[in-house]
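Example for tutorial group B:
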């Protein structure tokens, strides 16, 4: 390559300022890192790194504090929305977001997230759904798919006995206090771009409209699924998205609410 071509090249992508430059500890094929980058890019876009408060839940999402250059509060299992509510009411001018998994938000934290959304608390919630308890051994979660095998459903989830997977985005979209609710995935470049836009919109809903925004991100868990990363990524498209359809389920600003 000639020196002229080198000089003509320009950098088109770089690490978000809000993201720490550290080595990931997540399992190979885990998509938490991609989601972290999208959250950091949203913070950079609004230039809110110095003001943002993150609230970490229990589970793989607990390591929020190690990856973001922001203030982070550790919440008890499932209580991140309640802790975030308190932080926002004490510091109403500071952006506040929670980062939670399905074993946290959709299980022990079901009541917390429903009432937080119903009150219309002006926070942003990032919900990572990999249909399993990722950190504690791959147990069945409220979002585990029908017939999906886990460490506590070795023969597959039986809806007749275990109930059906909960579609949290649709549930919260039906509450009057929710201003924005979307489900995205990060299994393809196109979906990553769409996910970034949704997360940015959720932050905008808080920053500009002072309202509640929620984004569910379908993600992989190759270790607990017992799959190679490539196969786990394919499962998102082939099994998860058909049951958990992608899209914006509520956008109050677009509806003039």
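The residue assignment follows.
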């Amino acid at each position: 390559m000639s020196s002229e071509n080198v000089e003509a090249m320009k950098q088109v992508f770089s690490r978000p300022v809000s993201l720490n430059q550290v080595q990931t500890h997540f399992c190979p094929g885990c998509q938490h890192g991609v989601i972290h980058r999208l959250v950091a890019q949203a913070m950079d876009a609004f230039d809110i790194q110095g003001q943002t408060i993150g609230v970490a839940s229990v589970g793989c999402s607990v390591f929020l504090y190690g990856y973001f250059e922001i203030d982070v509060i550790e919440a008890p299992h499932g209580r991140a929305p309640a802790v975030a509510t308190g932080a926002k009411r004490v510091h109403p001018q500071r952006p506040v977001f929670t980062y939670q998994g399905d074993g946290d938000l959709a299980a022990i934290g079901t009541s917390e997230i429903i009432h937080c959304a119903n009150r219309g608390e002006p926070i942003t919630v990032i919900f990572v759904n990999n249909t399993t308890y990722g950190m504690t051994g791959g147990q069945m979660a409220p979002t585990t798919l029908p017939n999906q095998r886990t460490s506590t459903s070795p023969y597959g989830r039986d809806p007749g006995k275990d109930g059906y997977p909960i579609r949290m985005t649709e549930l919260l979209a039906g509450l009057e206090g929710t201003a924005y609710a979307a489900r995205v995935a990060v299994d393809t470049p196109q979906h990553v771009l769409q996910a970034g836009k949704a997360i940015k919109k959720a932050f905008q809903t808080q920053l500009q409209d002072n309202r509640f925004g929620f984004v569910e991100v379908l993600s992989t868990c190759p270790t607990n699924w017992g799959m190679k990363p490539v196969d786990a990524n394919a499962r998102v498209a082939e099994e998860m998205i058909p049951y958990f359809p992608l899209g914006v389920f509520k956008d109050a600003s677009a509806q003039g609410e």
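The two ends are 55 Å apart (CA to CA). Compare this with the pattern of hydrophobic and polar residues in the output above.
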